Amino acid sequence: LFTGDDALPHKHLLYRHWLRHESNPNVAVQGYTAWYPELPPLDFEVFLYESGLQANWGALKNTDGSWKQDANGYCLTTNFSIARGEFDRLSGFDEEFPDAAWEDISLGAKGSKHGLKTLFEPDAINFHAHRQTLDGFIARQQMEGRSRPIICSIHPELSASLLDPNGLRDYTSDGFQLAVKYAKQLHHNDDPALQDLRRQRWTTALRYASLKGIHDGLKARKSKVWLAVPNLHTPEQCMHVVSVASNLERGELGFAAVSTEWALREGMQNWAIWAVKGELELAYGRKREALQAFTR
Question: How far from 134 is each of 42, 181, 247, 261, CA to CA, in Å?
């Protein structure tokens, strides 16, 4: 059973997890994390929960408001248990992640690919008791942004939604600073007439923080191919280029070559994909072909 150091368990938490495993061996169980009732949430904390930035529990609800039974692919380690045999079968967490960001989602994605069944148990309750500040969550968003290229290198199919090439193209450092400034101007303003604007500014500032983290994460990668991501235009281009980058980092040149050809099919007119082709040729040691690709 995994939980967080900023959570307080309901007295029946362990029992509820055990009960589901007792009747369903070889599964994982996603418990529910609610706000600690003795710590009334601030407006900003309510926003984080309702927006899904803290944890998107709303995705586990049916249209009629009832809870779903299945949570396949979920792994929110603030309240998550898994049969030890299944954990070992999946080789546990990927250890590439330097911070507490996306390593649990990566395990959930791996479990989904390899047939792990995950059940949702809303009565296995953990209470989140962690005050959030705007500055603290901005730092948290930058941290999770830096880890997005890591999870995408493991699961390239997630890259289009997690790396957001359009947002990366539009990002500027000045824009980020202004977004934070504007968010702070209304952060403590509880005027009812300004609440929509306040939430809008929070959303923009936190999105910019995540984009900054992604930029930093892309620059930190071993392969230069990652730098092509902000210049891509379709989900397919993004997935194939990330696959090239991750395979080059692993030395899997054959797989990188196949992904490069798929990327070119998706974006023959995109200069960045020809630059990816050039990097592949350099990895093979073919300097003339690399020069031709870069020139193209």
Answer: 11, 11, 37, 44
How would DSSP label each residue in the chain?
Answer: -EE-TTEEE-TTHHHHHHHHHHHS-S-EEEEEEEE-TTSPPPHHHHHHHHHTSS--GGGGB-TTSPBPSB-TT---TTEEEE-HHHHHHTTSS-TT-SSSSSHHHHHHHHHHHTT--EEEEEEEEEEE-----HHHHHHHHHHHHHHHHHHHHH-GGGHHHHH-HHHHHH--HHHHHHHHHHHHHHTT---GGGHHHHHHHHHHHHHHHHHHHHHHHHHHSSSGGGGGGGG--SHHHHHHHHHHHHHHHHT-HHHHHHHHHHHHHH-TT-HHHHHHHHHHHHHHT-HHHHHHHHH-
- Tens of pLDDT, residue by residue over 198-244, are 999 999 999 999 999 999 999 999 999 999 999 999 999 999 999 99
Plot region of 115 (φ>0 → left; ψ -120 to 50 → alpha; else → beta): left
What's the CA gap between 75 and 28, in Å, rounded? 9
Q: Which residues contact 240 (CB under 8 A, 6 or more apart)?
A: 156, 259, 260, 262, 263, 266
Q: In whole angstroms, how far apart are CA 172 and each of 138, 141, 192, 267, 272?
A: 16, 16, 31, 25, 20
Q: Is the pTM of this model over 0.90?
A: yes
Burial class (CB in 10 A: 0-12, 13-18, 19+), 198: buried
Distance between CA atoms of 33 and 80, rounded to whole angstroms? 10
- Residues 218, 227: contact at Cβ < 8 Å? yes
pLDDT at 55: 82
Q: In what order do the strands lie in the sheet with 7-9?
A: 2-3, 79-82, 28-35, 118-128, 7-9
